[in-house]
Structure formats: C-alpha cells, structure tokens
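@channel sequence for tomorrow's demo:
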Amino acid sequence: MKLGVMVRGRKDTDYLKSFQQIKEMGMEYCQIGFWDTGLYTDETANAIKHATEVTGVKLSTLWAGYRGKVEWNFTGGPLTAGLVPPAYRAGREEDLIAGSAFAEKLGCNQIATHVGFIPENYYDPDFWGTVISLRRICSVMKERGQTFLFETGQETPVTILRAIEEIGLDNVGVNLDTANVMLYGKGNPADAVLVFGKYVRDLHIKDGFYPTDGKHLGKEAAVGEGLANFPLILKRLKDVGYNGTYIIEREISGEQQIKDIAKARDLLIKIGEELQLD
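structure tokens (generated this afternoon):
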C-alpha cells in the first residue's frame, strides 16, 4: 500500500523534518496543503524538492487553497467557501491556476481543493458558474499534464459526479476525504465510492461523526474511533481499481497527532493485508 501523511505548507514548515518523520514511520508518500498562495515561490519549491531527494518521500497531490475568508460551517460556509460564491470566484480561479503552476515546479500532477457548497439544483446559476470556472481551470491543468481533484465534503457525492460530467474533460477526479463526507452530513464514505468511485485519484484517510445540529459540522475523530467503515471503503475502492495513495490526515497537533497517525497506519496495513491490497 502507498501509505502517506498530510503535511501543512506554512511559513515555518520544515519540509525535511516532516518528510523524515514520515519515513521514520515507515511511509513514503505525502500531500502538501497550502492556504497561503504567497508561499508558491522557488524557495519553497526548492525546499520541498530537497526534502524529497534526501528522504525519498514522494508528493502525490498538492492541496491548493485560495484567497479570502472561509467559514467551516453550514451558515457562513455556503457564502464563503470555494468557487461557488460569485464574489470570490474570479480571484480564486486565479489562485488555483497559480497552485497548478507551483505544482508543475514540484513535478506534481494532481491538484485538489474544496470547490464549495455546489448547488444540487441543475438549473441554479451558481452551479453553472462554478462548472464554467472549473472548466477553465481544468483546461489549463490539462495542458500541464495535471488532474484536478474535488476534495469531498461540502457537496453530495452525486453533485460532484454531476459537476465532473458537465465539466466534460478527462483530467478531473476526486480526492475522497473519508471523514468530510460525514462531517458535512452529505453521505456515507463507503456508499460515496459506489457513486463516484471510478473518479477517485487520492484519499484523505480520516474519521469522524455526522453533525448533531443544523449549523455546525460533525466532529473529527482518530481513525477507527469514528463511523467510517474502512474495511468496506477500501474493499469498494479495490473493486473499482483504485491504485493511488492512502494519505492519513489528523487535524490536531502535537504528540497525540503522531500517535493517531501511527494507529491509522497500523489499521490500514491490517486491512490491506486482509484485502490483499498492493
């Protein structure tokens, strides 16, 4: 199994140290997530490439953020997240294309992001505005040999599927976050694979719970302590031919984060052996 860890790209991130920790834990892959687009510099790219050369840890996907305020809830979220809000769309389109250019410097051919609360109504103007914006972004990425990935969460699985179909390009896929589907109350991650499984190109291995009120997301949990059925998720991914990485994400910090990542690694290895995953 191609096991890895999510790394946060910040001003103070020590990429060599982060990659060495991944290697010491017996894993060889990572995603790097950026919100500060000002870090898309040659200096950052060189630091990441150096860390890769020294450790052998490989980058599967660049997770690209964008400008402006984002609220992670059900009230302000639809007004601020992703490409859906018209007021932010043009600027964030530029940011994602900048992320694509930075990924090219790194030799990375996948870029993921949260697109936002895409309307389920096929005739909603914001559905089509978002699709048209994504079509432009994906066209640029296609010229660079890159694939754009929807990070799951704010949309129902069938809405993501519909958006992919309407974009109409062959370099569009899904970064399945196994917790976010539940945290946003949009579905079950194992069942989501039945909807868009053939488009899954990368994973965030994460766990959590459904929302318990109408304004706030559900809570994240350590892998194996939430509601995600990982044996079933991985089996269904195997059934659709998934051969990408398994990127562990734990959105806390400190010693407990390291312990939870190790626990998730061990669980994935056990499931992988049972399912005879490569």
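heads up for whoever presents: The mean pLDDT is 97.
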